[in-house]
Hints:
This protein is an alpha+beta fold. The chain has helices spanning 8-18, 21-26, 36-54, 58-64, 79-88, 107-120, 122-141, 144-156, 281-317, 341-373, 376-412, 423-431, 440-452, 458-473, 481-507, 510-545, 550-567, 570-579, 583-586; strands at 67-69, 72-74, 159-164, 180-183, 189-199, 208-215, 228-233, 246-251, 262-275. Strands 3, 4, 5, 6, 7, 8 and 9 form a seven-stranded mixed β-sheet that branches. Strands 1-2 form a two-stranded antiparallel ribbon.
Amino acid sequence: MPEYKAPLRDMNFVLNEVLDAESHYQSLAGCEDATPDMVAAIMEEGAKFAERVLSPLNRVGDQQGCTLNDGVVVTPEGFKDAYKQFVDGGWPSLAHETEWGGQGLPESMGIIINEMVGTANWSWSMYPGLSHGAMNTIDAHGSDQQKETYLTKLISGEWTGTMCLTEPHCGTDLGMLRTKAEPQGDGSYKISGTKIFISAGEHDMADNIVHIVLARLPDAPEGTKGISLFIVPKHLPETMNDANGVSCGSLEHKMGIHGNSTCVMNFDDATGYLIGEANKGLNCMFTFMNTARLGTALQGLAHAEWGFQNSLTYAKDRLQMRALTGPACPEKSADPIIVHPEVRKMLLTQKAFAEAGRAMIYYCAQLVDKVKLSDGDEKAEADALLAFLTPIAKAFLTEVGFESANHGLQIFGGHGFISEWGMEQNVRDSRISMLYEGTTQIQALDLLGRKVLMTQGEALKGFTKIVHKFCQAEAENTQMQEFTQPLIDLNKEWGELTMQVGMKAMQNRDEVGAASVDYLMYSGYVVLGYFWARMAKVAQQKLAEGEGDAAFYQAKLTTAQFYFQRLLPRTRSLVVTMQSGSDNLMSLDQEHFSF
Length: 595
């Protein structure tokens, strides 16, 4: 049966040996208590909860799903009790300000716990995950009264939160939304409209649900400039009795993540309260969306890690055929399938994406800490770098996470197609990650169009300088040349490709759209290459010094070599397709698209 074991050794390797978490936390005001011992203790307790409480519920959630009865959503068996344990353990308050009931630990600590929780049971993790985004939004843009009323309850876990953006007719184009907000003269508003695809929109796990809702005021301008943001609770805090004109109209019938309630939410003259300035709602909502995008990047890691763990166990146990070089286990009727090169390739692909994806996300999490807790140039630099890396993390890691989930199913063969092994659930659950919080295509346009070309390449330079300095520092280290030389070449090519696309786009803006996804995937492979090079450097040092677990460090080095020799070369085909232009996409007249 499928299981999850928190990879604490690898998580600590990234945190302490690659990213030097101790120095990072000591450099941040208010994070001095995040010592290695404290961090290790928190991670160990988080691992116990993920492995013992959430992992056994993963298949339960998929089989039972959520049910809607008379407007009330009932979650799968065990979900509600698991949430109570989560709240009793103080996990929702981990990375929030003490002023509002939080524990005051850095945001990156919350992301580390979220990895374990999400890998063990992604559907369940979405309930507190959506709350985290609501907390960040109210913390950043809410009034002190709103924080006292709503933020304290969200941080304690007594209430949960959602984000209510899209509507049936508009999808990602939020400028088209129609939900209305009518001022009432007492500072409140009446919110009316329908929102779709609302994760955790209604459930039985908490006393109240705080919806963060985009809507239009009566005199609002058209498009995205006329959107405001509102807090709309399921129950008004003053009474907590009757529903506040908020109801779940239906549950979506989904391909995966069955354990999470994805709702159509109806707002019928529901009382709401403005967050931030009128008609500036989309700006405020980006606080929520950016939090959610990093969370979705984490989902890509989660499905790669879960797929790898269960595939590896199966590949070591499943006997089939003999190794091409002769029997590896002559005492058995056949050899375990891990002896076959193509099975090894799939396993190493999962491993390479999961471990470098973890390094990338933890690095981004440290940037989040700096944005929140630093000031001046350090804060500005971290913010710019995080803005550049977020669309890559969200889109690239979910794409390769889905690939890794599919490799898991393939390794199991026919058994992978059978539900009891969990591999087909992992594929189904992972597929949504490339869609919500902005599809891969939307993220690609954001990266190439807004983050890179609109800054005239400055956002890209912020990261390529980091790669350049790393390679420069290793210039005399001959052992590192197999990693640094490809990075040097790619770093140079990255800028040249950007220039080429930018020049073409000056003549035809479709060139940006035509190149964007290839550009994003190219960027993702280079970014992960940088993190694999950093991990290889640490592994080489530890092996040379004879410190620690030699087998662990050798596996790191070998996986880095696999990545550079087998996965990083995918950039070659992406260069060709990226440079092929928009004509092969746009020259066929619409009327000639037929069947």
